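Budget justification aside, the reviewers requested a transparent look at the raw inputs and outputs of the sequence design task funded under Objective 1. We therefore reproduce one unedited record. The lines immediately below are the structure tokens for a 496-residue chain.
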């Protein structure tokens, strides 16, 4: 492709394409970065620059790029049957096979899968099924859903309401009033000084129960949680968290929805996060790793307990009156089957566990002692590095300084794609599950260069005194002190 055509495509994109989660005015000025191809853990843009995609797209390309086996399965299915719906009892062969296969991989027995097209629509479907479940049980007042602050459950009207990120509510008239949010479980940033993880977990469980009692247990339908919170910060549940939470839900007849969109299909070193954290959900949300992002597909998996009630909809309502044109799409199902073939044949869940342990250890060795790194956290092949202004006091940088956003630009310059997380000065990693230890070393080396380049000089003002530091690796050197109140009105980064 000629340079002129590539630039023309950028201009066309800038002129016609509304990008998700992108500042539109900035994009209009700077233009997009168009990714042209991918192979393994690498992607290449239209300018020919290679990147290690340490985010696997958006937490999803678990088998890596360029898998011809998946392409061939998609092609064969399109040639045989490109599309058929699942309404009125119709179905297709690959969808039937995929549903049965996924159920066998789950850590606990479940009953049926409803297939959709994205994690967002799956969580919308989940809430509709929860409401239907309670209506069929003659408990129409049980409609409220409890989610958590900093959670991520999607962007449709209901899913965005479940999501606990204010920037996804502001100006959209969200959340809807039936959604209530309880505290996020991040031990590092939220637990009182000196409190143990188990005590923090019990505190959060008590807080949840207090919310349930305040709202009225007979009005609460479900509690939704990611086993490990992804986009909200790669936040791990503290020790004993779900052990303390689940009995409360059972006590008040509240369903547990496990949002496994990120955690599912090997990300934590187990097939599902519910298995890693010993969850017993009533509904499980899947997407991303189901097809490794090659074709859009999601699923709402319901337990026998829920199915036994939903099946009565036929006698009371005439049937299960929900679905999408593209529910149970045969091409997506074919991609899912080929994706699972690769994952099982190459033991990618085992690789996530083994290489993930190496990646976690090397990240901590490289960055835990850095004066501006507060915490390195993660499980398997998902991790985050969080930056702080004062390591000893865990004092965060002001989010308006956009530390992680600026850091992300330097990562791209070094040829590694990470992601700046909202509501945190943190960078996340979620590489394809095929990554090797040597490739993990390369990710860390490139990230380290970006860290050095982005945090070379730091000026912080404390009680009117400005301190200028030079930071090289894990060494911080005080260069100068300026008592003049005119130097800086507040701490800010230089040399970005």
């Amino acid at each position: 492709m000629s340079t002129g055509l590539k630039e023309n495509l950028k201009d066309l994109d800038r002129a016609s394409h509304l990008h998700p989660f992108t500042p539109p005015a900035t994009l209009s000025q700077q233009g997009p970065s168009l990714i042209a191809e991918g192979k393994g853990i690498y992607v290449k843009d239209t300018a020919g620059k290679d990147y290690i995609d340490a985010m696997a797209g958006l937490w999803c390309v678990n088998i890596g790029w360029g898998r011809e086996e998946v392409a061939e399965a998609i092609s064969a299915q399109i040639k045989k049957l490109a599309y058929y719906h699942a309404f009125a009892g119709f179905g297709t062969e690959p969808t039937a096979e995929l549903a049965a296969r996924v159920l066998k991989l789950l850590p606990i027995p479940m009953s049926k899968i409803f297939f959709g097209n994205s994690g967002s629509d799956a969580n919308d479907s989940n809430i509709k099924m929860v409401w239907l479940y309670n209506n069929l049980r003659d408990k129409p007042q049980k409609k409220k859903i409890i989610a958590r602050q900093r959670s991520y459950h999607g962007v449709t009207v209901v899913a965005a309401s479940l999501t606990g990120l204010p920037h996804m509510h502001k100006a959209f008239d969200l959340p809807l009033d039936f959604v209530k949010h309880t505290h996020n479980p991040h031990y590092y940033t939220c637990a009182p000084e000196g409190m143990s993880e188990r005590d923090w977990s019990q505190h959060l469980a008590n807080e949840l129960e207090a919310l349930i009692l305040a709202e009225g247990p007979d009005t609460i339908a479900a509690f939704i949680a990611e086993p490990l919170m992804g986009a909200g910060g790669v936040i791990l549940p503290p020790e004993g968290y779900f052990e303390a939470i689940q009995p409360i839900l059972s006590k008040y007849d509240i369903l547990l929805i496990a949002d496994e969109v990120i955690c599912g299909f090997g990300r934590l070193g187990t097939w599902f996060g519910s298995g890693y954290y010993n969850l017993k959900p009533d509904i499980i949300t899947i997407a991303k790793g189901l097809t490794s992002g090659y074709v859009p597909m999601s699923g709402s998996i319901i337990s026998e307990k829920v199915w036994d009630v939903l099946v009565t909809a036929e006698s009371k309502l005439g049937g299960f009156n929900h679905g999408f044109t593209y529910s149970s799409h045969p091409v997506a199902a074919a991609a899912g089957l080929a994706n699972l073939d690769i994952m099982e044949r190459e033991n990618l869940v085992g690789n996530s566990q083994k290489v993930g342990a190496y990646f976690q250890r090397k990240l901590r060795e490289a960055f835990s002692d850095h004066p501006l790194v507060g915490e390195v956290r993660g499980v398997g092949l998902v991790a985050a590095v969080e930056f702080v202004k004062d390591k000893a006091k865990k004092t965060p940088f002001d989010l308006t300084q956009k530390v992680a956003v600026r850091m992300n630009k330097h990562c791209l310059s070094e040829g590694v794609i990470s992601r700046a997380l909202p509501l945190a000065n943190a960078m996340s990693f979620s590489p394809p599950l095929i990554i090797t230890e040597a490739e993990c070393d390369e990710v860390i080396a490139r990230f380290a260069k970006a860290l050095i380049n982005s945090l070379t000089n730091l000026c912080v003002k404390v009680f009117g005194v400005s301190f200028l530091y030079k930071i090289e690796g894990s060494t911080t050197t005080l260069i100068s002190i300026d008592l003049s109140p005119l130097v800086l009105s507040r701490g800010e980064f230089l040399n970005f």
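The longest helix spans residues 348-367. The chain has 17 helices and 19 strands. Computational costs for records of this kind are itemized in the attached budget.
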